[in-house]
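This protein record is not my work; I was only asked to verify it. Take the sequence as given and treat only the tokens as open to question. I have pasted the whole thing underneath without changing anything:
***
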Amino acid sequence: MLFPTVSFAAFFLVVFILSWLLMPRFRLWKLFMIAASYFFYATWDWRFCFLLVAATVINQFGAQMVVRGRTHGARKRWMALTVAADLVILGFFKYYDFFAVQADNLLESIGLGAPLPLLQVVFPVGISFLTFRIITYVVGVYRDQVAPAPTVDVALYVAFFPYLLAGPIVRAGEFLPQLESPRDPRRIDVGRAAFLIFAGLIKKIIIADYLAGSIVNDAFASPGDFSSFEVLVAVLGYSVQIYADFSAYSDMAIGFALLLGFRFPDNFNAPYTALSIRDFWRRWHITLSSWLRDYLYIPLGGNRKGRLRTYVNLMITMLLGGLWHGAGWTFVFWGGLHGAGLVGEHMAADRRKALGIEEPAPTLGRRILKRTWVFAFVTFAWIFFRADTIGSAWDVIVRLFTGWGTPSPAVTWQLLTLIFLGVAIQYVPRRITAGIEAGFSRLRPVLQGLAVALMLFLIGALGPQGPALFLYFRF
């Protein structure tokens, strides 16, 4: 079930009503929410539900063994074994065929060809998010940041449907405390929830899906059939598409969770207004960025072991962050580009500090130049993220320079307008969107209903026929 569908609307309506009816009987409510979440996941493939069971059993057992460990070494070993089990499951489903092909190619190149078996395993949707999310539980218990939870709570944390498929990566320490007592319906922020859900629908259906269907998919599939200007618009369009698509899912997930009484962390904060690559990663997929920082970069040593080690840790973190997105060299290269950008910024800052040179004053002109540079860098890197192979990405880059002067019928004013709006909306001050949310909350129920009906009508009239899969379902 996709969020922007009638089937999900019917599903959520039933869950919403029964959830609040059962809330006073809190344990029964938990069991109902687990069942509803399993049903939601089973609509993709019922076999995936066994993955949820395995994640629950493995990590609850691991957490209990960590608690029972008599020495620090024993606790650490149980934590490491549990995390390793999580990563083995992720590696099997997501990376086995990729590494089998790479190993086979390597053996063939040195004359030791012995084809490894390709299993063609069904890829469980959302497994990357599930793995990172559940790791925060057992590691949190090991670090004494999270108290061991009852198994029913862990099962619900693993399966809770709003974030199950594509984030945000809600940590155990953020979710499990909310299961300690029933939710209070009087504390639901209906205005913010409705605003997030409908903003997500607009970004997904009107912006992301339109850009994908109008130029992005075709231009990346066959760049030679398009002019340089059309390919440039497609590249810019994908930069907007991936933001609109993924932030739309995150917004709707946060909104649906709010309606059920739960608060999730924000996942985006106007990333295309960033003044540096570091700033971009503080704003883009925030829950992943902070996860990589806390569970990979800092354990590697962070910036505590000298400049060179800091640069190496940054690059390792971004390369693995790229690989997390998908089993392909394009994702690794994309992560490497961002790693190089972060290392370059750190090197420049270290150089200025060594020479005693202060950071230039943040004038308007400098801010414009910085934002333009960061947006250009990020957009260029997205080419590799979107392309199926490194060769395909190179074809797109070459076509950016070899097809000028030819007609560009695929570029329309609607496309250019949506691309502009996709970036411009990120410059809208937060106080304005907060005011809209507050204003909606103050409307009478009848007027709220009319506003919702009008938005649904506009989305249905202006959007393409039927929503496409969210991009991050691939990861």
